[in-house]
Amino acid sequence: MTSPAPSASSASAPQPVQTPGPGTAARRRPPHELLGLTSPAYGGDYNPEQWDEATFAEDLELMAEADVNMVSLGIFSWARLEPREGDYELDWLVEVIDRLHDAGIAVDLATATASPPAWMAAEHPESLPMSADGVRLGFGSRQQYCPSSAVYRERSAALAQALAERLGDHPGVVMWHIGNEYGCHTAECFCPACAQAFRSWLAHRYGDVEHLNAAWGTDFWSQRYTSLEQVGPPAAMPTFHNPAQLLDWRRFSDHQLRSLMEAEARILREHSSRPITTNFMGDFPATDYWRWAGALDIISDDSYPDPADEAAAHEVAWAGDLMRGLAGGHPWILMEQAPSAVQWRGRNSPKRPGQLLLWSLARVAHGADGILQFQWRQSRQGAETFHSGMVPHAGRASRTWEEVVATGRALKRLGPVLGEPVRAQVAVVLDWDSQWAMSSAIGPVEPGERFETARAWHRSLWEAGIATDVVPAAADPGAELTGYRLIIVPAVFIDYPELAGRLEQAAAAGAQVVVVGPTGVVDANAGAVLGGYLGSLRPLLGVRVTDHAALSGPVGRTDSRAALVNRLSRVVEAPAAETWTGLEAVSVPLRRVLDQMGSPAPDLRAGGWAEEVRVDEAPDDADTDEGREPVEVVAVFDGRGGGADLAGWPAITRRPAGGAGAAWYVAADLDAVSRAALLRLVCAHARVRPVVADLPDGVEAQRRGQVLFLLNHGDRAAEVTGVVGTDLLSGEACTGHVVLAPRSALVVLDNTRPASV
Ligand code: GLA
Ligand code: ZN
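Above: inputs. Below: predicted complex with zinc ion.
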């Protein structure tokens, strides 16, 4: 080697993304102020260009009947707005907006850049995206653009400008809707223009090729580059990609899409004072919405829980809590949900009776100040012909229409909820970069569903009735971790010294910090943390992870008679083939919790993931550890199932952090029962209680300021006592005992309660 390569470990310590931007946290104004709402926004995507004049007139009548006060317009109208390159036809759109405005319906106006017209594909075929194996995707569907395409960038910016100049001050336009669901179909493009843009992005990040070599570890498999010009996207390759290349590619692809949105936002702001949004897709894996949120004035979300999923209501809660986090704790807008069934699943279940209103109210309970659907009128043609609409093919004589009208009527009564905050004492940390790092790594475990661990812990909190915020790993001035009593750090794969510091502060201030593996496994370049995983969290937790033990699926276990004849292998156990492992509660309080949960008491179990954990005997830094109490082992692996070789090793640990605070480590993928048991114990330490105690099965409670939401997701009527205040939906007084019908909700304003509780 001629010149020593810069060492990857000498790179500055990884920092989680910084989110503060123009729209975040403290500087964000609530949507109802920005939009001039007196009750939650209600309506949907409106595509009048698919219909004739008579239908338009009928739409206005039906919208009035359903109490619609806002529609999203023009999302897929580019071909009508610019039928030939540079030739704009905006008059029809202005007329639609005029007529909607006259009818009292506000417009969320799209920049219409989600799907370029046929002329772009025909005249500029290089604007079409390319798949990983080099195939240009064709025209005739939607979102067929390369995010690096010069012509797409130029024409989309010009269209946004033309619309902003013409309609930026129109009184009927209350909000801008940039693009649509960025990355939904085309989250990455492998064309030559993207390869070139990737190289520029890498040059900016690393400066020169030697720093890239060091960061990517290219001495492995002879991947060393001598020029940045040799570097390309992680396209189709013979076998595994370089994980650092994949991780940077994900960051780059997110950056490319985000730069499109930001470019349009800049143009809109030059010509219009209206607030700006783009519709997110929950915890969509390809786009790091913490990075996106700062450029937006209003956070909005598209969410399609499956009515055939018994945990669909958790999906509503999870997405809502995440959107509120992205909005810096402020309300947000639901931009899309299905009025009934979608058309894109294998089985497209309709919403059950009552569910449209129930889930709409659940979204409001989690911070939404607007409920819009995809779409207003069910299409007669095209790929979404069989996706439900607020006005179904059958017309008014349909259950969907009745429920649409009922939902509009209910939302109209929720003016007192607008702008009211949700207060939570529990936070779940969510980090896209870590998810990318985990899915870029080859092993140690097959990446599961997106944010699987975070979702699982959030769900356990939700099932226990505990209000929860979702927060970024990065410092956020609007949401300091020290304000929380319980902080869950679920599979944050990248080691962040800065986050570790803030968790230490929170624990010292009295919080319970629960870290769940695999956490702190790699650095920001996907390189392994050396000396024991958990990295900079080790001082706080007092433990380190010395090995991983993924529990894989059953291998070769199906031939049950083989042991009759297989003399050599019949005495060989293969515990790693088991998908579960047993745990034993060592701590008396945890055993007590289990005893309270049933008779016989449930046992503790984990599946999918387990780790070998050692308690750190000698503190790394005697000064900082002075006065800290020793680590307590809360549970051990008991040798049952796949964890046989871990028998006796710590599975859950706890280290007191001074005062009432403590740091817990969970070295396994606990199942629902075990998570619930541990949370009961941790919540007792944290003095965290459910929003409303002792609710019957199926009933969720959430509070926004003085308004209590009781949401009965169950199929049985449920009785709740102690409910006092005014039922906002019926206007009647609640004086204690209420009965909730199956899939119904109660929204109660309690003026006797201080607003801040
Ligand atoms: C997405 C899109 C909409 C529509 C719906 C259908 O959310 O934004 O245009 O295609 O899916 O569910
Ligand atoms: Zn491209």
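The pocket of zinc ion (ligand 2) is lined by residues 129-130, 146, 148, 189, 191, 193-194 (CB under 6 Å).
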